[in-house]
Design brief:
about 300 residues; mainly alpha; 16 helices; about 0% strand
Length: about 300
């Protein structure tokens, strides 16, 4: 399940790129999360009493609103807007840096102990992110996508900060709400933003025309990327430790980049390969530097791609 779930997520970058050829990121998120919410209705219904109890508490309402905003509004807005401007290869590789950003936020927000291996991982990861974005020692603005690709990559990096913020702030909520139910609440709650935003987009630009490939991509993102992949992830984590799960995170950037090349005809540069190597090395250092399953668990992503 760990392998299949991460492989499913790895394909979301190519699928998202295909869907964004026909939809704006607003329309994509509105459609994707509407379908996903319908599929998550059984989880929401079974947890309805717990949801009502949480919504009665002012502090809990604030926490849930913050999680929805960070995890499924801001991160998805920046991430999909970045993907529309960049490449699936770049995004797949950059997403591997989320665990690194989560570690940084753990040091600064949760005041966890800073380790020497953590600092080394930060340096390697930052250098890798720069090489993936710049595609060279100096920024290359003349390759495929040009300056738009660089801007898209920077939007994706910003999205990773929001995703990492979701992971860090979501720890308290996970003590009260089961992970899959918390995800379902977050997905459904995001529709309060995406449905009105999507309606405004359609009123301004008209109803979008989706090709068969675009419909297939949206369906894949909703059914597999948001529901099945996340269910598999949590189901697996209920059976194995976080230290076992962590190495499977390498599947996403490697398979995601390979699919971008194979399915979309995107290219890899020498700087991209070196940058990817540094990012993966930083992820390995962070995972190896964590001294317990609890520390490793704090680095694992809490939201679907």
């Amino acid at each position: 399940m760990l392998a299949i779930g991460n492989t499913i997520w790895a394909a979301t970058y190519a699928a998202g790129k295909e869907a964004l050829a026909c939809l704006s990121f607003v329309e994509l998120n509105a459609l994707r999360f509407s379908i996903a919410t319908l599929l998550m209705t059984p989880a929401l219904w079974s947890g309805r009493r717990l949801i009502v109890a949480q919504l009665r508490e002012r502090r809990s309402r604030g926490e849930l609103a913050r999680l929805v905003l960070l995890g499924f509004v801001l991160s998805q807005a920046f991430g999909k807007a970045g993907l529309a401007m960049s490449t699936a290869v770049d995004v797949a590789l950059l997403v591997a840096g989320e665990s690194l950003i989560t570690a940084v936020l753990s040091w600064t927000v949760l005041r966890e102990r800073v380790t020497r291996s953590g600092v080394s991982a930060l340096a390697a990861g930052a250098a890798g992110v720069y090489l993936v974005v710049a595609r060279g020692i100096l920024p290359n603005l003349e390759g495929p996508g040009g300056a738009a690709r660089v801007i898209g990559d920077l939007l994706v990096v910003a999205a990773l900060f929001f995703e990492a913020g979701y992971t860090i702030t979501g720890k308290a909520s996970l003590a009260r709400i089961p992970p899959l139910l918390l995800t379902s609440i977050s997905v459904a709650g995001s529709l309060a933003v995406w449905i009105p935003a999507g309606a405004i987009e359609i009123a301004r630009e008209g109803v979008p025309h989706l090709t068969a490939a675009a419909w297939l991509s949206v369906t894949y993102l909703a059914v597999f990327g948001t529901v099945a992949g996340y269910w598999m992830w949590f189901r697996a984590l209920s059976r194995v430790g976080a230290s076992v799960a962590a190495p499977f995170l390498f599947i996403q950037p490697l398979v995601g980049a390979a699919l971008g090349v194979a399915l979309l005809g995107e290219s890899l540069t020498a700087a991209t390969v070196v940058g990817a190597t540094l990012i993966l090395a930083s992820l390995a250092m962070v995972t190896a530097g964590a001294r317990s399953s609890k520390e490793i668990a704090s680095l694992l992503p809490e939201i679907p791609q």
